[in-house]
Amino acid sequence: MTGDSHETDGADPSTLGLELLTDLASPQPRYQEAIAQGGCLQPMDGLTLTFSRDLNDYVLRHHELFSSVGGLQLGNTRPLIPLNVDPPQHGKYRKILDPLFAPKRMDEQESDIVARVHHFIDEFVDRGECNFTEDFAELFPSAVFLGLMGLDWGELDTFLRLRDGILRPEKFDEMAAFDGAVRLRVQEATGQEIYEYFGRQLDVREANPTDDVLTHFVTAEIDGERLSREEILDICFLFLIAGLDTVSDSLTCFYAYLAQHPEHRRQIVDDPSVIPNAVEELLRWESPVPGGVPRLATCDTELPNGMKIGAGSAVMVSYGAANVDPAEFPDALVVRFDREVNRHIAFGGGVHRCLGSHLARRELRITLREWHRRIPDYRLKPGTEQLVYRPGLRSVENLTLVWP
Ligand code: HEM
Q: How many domains does the chain have?
């Protein structure tokens, strides 16, 4: 099977730094430069970035040295569970949550997810064109969540509004794009709505338990203890952030790649059994979550390569760089769907490794399978070939596809 090589563009080492976190159009060659220069950087006081796979693994596996507590300010008033919780408390939450997102539970969702893919494709297939980002990628993962949480289709707009209030506050107040205080104000107002919205849903589940995920949150017990109402709300808040955009962003990256690489697309159309491998390889190559949530050093410490890290300073791992580290992937810049060993860390590593990886994989595989059955040949709409990758999570704005 063929693979496309994406050779280094000879990035100037002196320009490496924070832009590795923000310029995400084609970061892979620059990630390799950062690895070649030692695998970590301290672009400013109090911040260390790790790039190589071994340094990333070290940070991710030593949660006692690099704490995830503190973390993100996204309109939440309490820590996000389990993302901003360290062991041993963290393990208690994962024990409750992991079984709800295990492969067997995802098998039960298969037909529901298939139906939701077709619901959206039906809307535009005859048009021969779609804004893939807005007409599919940003809607589909939210629709899947409705199914999981036992909510009606009618709740989709509420879900999207709550998600946007946190992740795209500029849609509600354009000043939020420039002014951090405005941004936080929109996020906090939305945050309150999220707590209230899920609070009402939990009241309903308590009165009438069903078989959905929200009911399981209410009834789950570990060592004879149930989750408190606040703990459940903090989990729901995180799900809205971690479970929706990540899949949307992955889809835009995948389809941007496939639209521009007809040979790869053909492999999927000719032999759909390649899809699980294609998903892993595209996750590796695209790394839609490019970096980890910042960890804070719990004491003065140092990395295995001798780099010193002061107590209280932040450390960010680059999943995107680790996924093109030549020490792990000798042909890292070649995208190949027949890769036999693919130990990528697009879902993170250590205790905080993604809780939703089985769900995400299922959504991505089903989309590739069902889409290519119905729309096997597509390309970027002429005139829109210049793709815009957003900073933060890696995603393509207004990816516009056309097909015969
Ligand atoms: C392709 C899509 C996805 C990608 C690439 C992705 C990636 C990640 C990564 C890299 C982390 C680790 C963050 C860190 O500690 O630095 C993470 C954590 C997490 N993800 Fe995902 N994720 C995806 C989809 C989902 C979905 C669908 C869910 C919904 C259930 C989800 C729920 C979570 C949660 C709850 C955590 C925190 C786990 C913990 O702290 O123990 N993710 N994800």
A: 1
